[in-house]
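Journal club prep — side note

Before the paper discussion, L.F. wants everyone to see what a predicted structure for a comparable chain looks like in token form. Sequence:
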Amino acid sequence: MLHDDFITQLLNMEDSLVKVDNIETDLTEKVKYIHISTKPVPAFCEKCGSRMHSNFFCAYLSVYSKGHDIRKPVHSMLQDGFKLVLVYKQRRWKCTNPDCAFSCYEKISFLKKNRRCTDLVDMMIVDSFRDIRLTASQIAQKFHVSDTAAIYTFMRYVDMKRLPLTKAICIDEVHIGSQDCRYAVIIQDFITGEPIDMKQSRKDSVMQPYLLSIPKKERLKVEFLVSDMFNAYISYAGKYFPNAVSVVDSFHVVQMINSKLKTYMISKEKEFKARDKERERVLQLEKGNPGLHLPMSDEVYLYGRCRWVILKNRDTLTCQIPQKPDRHFRYFMDIYDYEEKFRKTDPQLMLMRDLKEEYIQFNSRNSGNRDNAEKELPLLIDKYLSSGVDEFADIARSLKKYYEPILNSFITLERTGSKGPYHSRLSNGPMEGLNRKPKDMKRICRGFDNFEHLRNRFLFAERKNAPVLASPRSISQVRDDSFTGAKRGSYTKSKNTLFKDSEP
């Protein structure tokens, strides 16, 4: 009796009438079978109130198949890779009143009608979906169910709702690339770092009704809207959030400057490649050898493979790094040597690098000090305009265009972290780390056809203590919500289809 109680508690069987009849182990298939049944209790018909009868009690050997059905639900896994199967002898009750003749199967709490998995397995499947590194196929294989069953189980128990808006929110898009969702929009709470919601598209036809559907009282709470330089996001402040100011993340400003530098270096690389190709053609004609090729020039090597010297922040390139051998130049090189090589090929490039470093120093020097940044930014813009470099003249015009949102990025707010509250500058950095997760999910799972499933799983995995539904949805509801394609038409299965084309 103690043994039975221990097993029923271990397997989360709350029914007091359930008893363990036998335990079998198949070492070849690595499966453990636990035979369970219920203790006999009086039963009465729910239709007429008469006493009900089960043939299982009368003659076990002769009416074994008539008095009960055998169900084999998959339960939780055991250690050492064993699969656990419960062999349940389910009684079939029949009313003794001949005028009623009502019949039904007995019910136990841990196994629902027409279900192959117990409730405990359902919860374990749902919990496994918190790990975005696992595909639905891997989860299904782990719990010995089909891929569709694993996905449907998750969708039955998980229906993530939008979180309330807070004082500061971040917004950005992520490329999904599926048929019904190209760019999904993620809204994040800057204070806690949790995702507020995820929408299927960044188009106005989707975002406008969604944002207007949020109660105005809630939208009035937003004071800072952090985004990149996408004009549509910047316009949301004031348009949908009357009390909010737009904030352009400093990372995207530095990214814009580096993009100008990289584009300039690529164009220079193409010029040097064209020059080398012409030299090679002339040399081939002079030597009469069309197979003659010149080695890679120093300029092509510098602008193609050593861009990091210019693009990386000067502070991160410590000059104390020891020299390392360079196969192209065939001697030891350090940061100063590479810079000298660039200076000889194009003095303007080093001027551009110095102008970039001035913004990076301005950005780090005034962190948390908006008033001081407001004094220095106009001087930096004037310097860029008078530098004589077209690329930085364009950057200066962009700094003017996003003047106020850039200055707002120097404001600091208190955030909630794992070690307690701390102050942080307004930034889209938390968002950049968050919107990588859907990309990882898409890559690991090789794409998503159903956006709602992607949204539910992403929010479920990234929110702390994400809840599950107390009353799970039915399979029919899940199928109706997840079905997005056309209905399958009728078809006739023909015989010998493999040899159909060869028939006379």
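L.F.'s comment for the group: The chain is about 40% helix and 15% strand. Keep this in mind when we get to the figures.
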